[in-house]
Amino acid sequence: xxxxxxxxxxxxxxxxxxxxxxxxxxxxxxxxxxxxxxxxxxxxxxxxxxxxxxxxxxxxxxxxxxxxxxxxxxxxxxxxxxxxxxxxxxxxxxxxxxxxxxxxxxxxxxxxxxxxxxxxxxxxxxxxxxxxxxxxxxxxxxxxxxxxxxxxxxxxxxxxxxxxxxxxxxxxxxxxxxxxxxxxxxxxxxxxxxxxxxxxxxxxxxxxxxxxxxxxxxxxxxxxxxxxxxxxxxxxxxxxxxxxxxxxxxxxxxxxxxxxxxxxxxxxxxxxxxxxxxxxxxxxxxxxxxxxxxxxxxxxxxxxxxxxxxxxxxxxxxxxxxxxxxxxxxxxxxxxxxxxxxxxxxxxxxxxxxxxxxxxxxxxxxxxxxxxxxxxxxxxxxxxxxxxxxxxxxxxxxxxxxxxxxxxxxxxxxxxxxxxxxxxxxxxxxxxxxxxxxxxxxxxxxxxxxxxxxxxxxxxxxxxxxxxxxxxxxxxxxxxxxxxxxxxxxxxxxxxxxxxxxxxxxxxxxxxxxxx
Length: 516
Description:
The protein is of the alpha/beta class. It is built from twelve helices and eleven strands. A hairpin with a 2-residue loop joins strand 5 and strand 6. The longest helix has 87 residues. One of its GO terms (molecular function) is protein histidine kinase activity.
């Protein structure tokens, strides 16, 4: 605060302005008294004494007047000194104001620099270090900012530590939840396999009983649904048993195998070229992905409509198009579903608690893991169109003979290919209609035989397939027509005397049902 100075402690005190008038008044009164005394002395005959008194009084008056004059001059000098001092103080005050203004500018610039440094520090913290702590990656050190106060820096470091601790706790909970769900899925799958095994034994024991055969089919199919649900849960938990197919499988057969893992398999209509195949390493995940999309298509469309599936070869690979006749989705929900199905945005396990809709998240995980392209759009039939792009590097073109007899079974007994790890789920027998430029005659109704107990025989027109490779931690199995058995049964259930053929191992091999 600036104070204006009106006096200085070194200056003598200023005499009152009434000093001059009072001295003049006293001089006048003294002179009047002297005159009166002189007159009185003259009347009484005092003579020279009166005159001397009058003269003395006059001298005193003159001296008083001189004193008053000197005092007035001194006061004028003091006033002049005061004015000079005020001018000096004003100059000093202006200098101080200028100095304080410069200091204020310096502090303002310093404050701006400190604020900018703090913003950079916090931005690096929020954009780089906190996300790294949340993802449990290596947290980079803080950027060096000399202008940031050490106490503030320490406090912000505490924020990073707190976030890291919360992230670790969240990750531990997620891992515990995933472990529980994977263990549950691995318990459910063997139960499904045992149900299918029991159904197989029952069918083999009574091959001529149509009611038993039909009931066995329904039991086997229901067990396949249970196994698919368990495998989908395992996929959501980022678990993968690592099973493989030995040979490529035509995409039309992939769709048929997938349709065998859903409830309304009879509504699936497939159109495509049997020579377009998926590479062996991606056959099983592709079957599971298509099964989830087919399940959504059948659930979200009227039960009286068909689900049209088209397979075709394109420049960048092969495309599987699935069209349903449902009511479709609005623009917002369709965009959200596309983000999930394509793998661009995968929900956490806790995000699925409310809806319990796991189909599209499973599709997204498989698409991201194996490089499939998945897109959802409006279908010309009024529902939703799902387009699955299999990249060119994962597509193979089969020759005509392979298209007629896809996936020769391995000569290794199935029991040798099984391991203690969760076995792939058996594809529920289903045979959706297939229209293709390359067609094969439908075989006759086979006898129900489990490949778990027999060694598949080679076709009479082909040489035996080479022995299977050594079993990996997951099971190894051969590509066959997974839904062939049920299709033949449904079409020829009343002709049980038909000539039997060798059953398709892929139709009943428990290895087929791991992904359900």
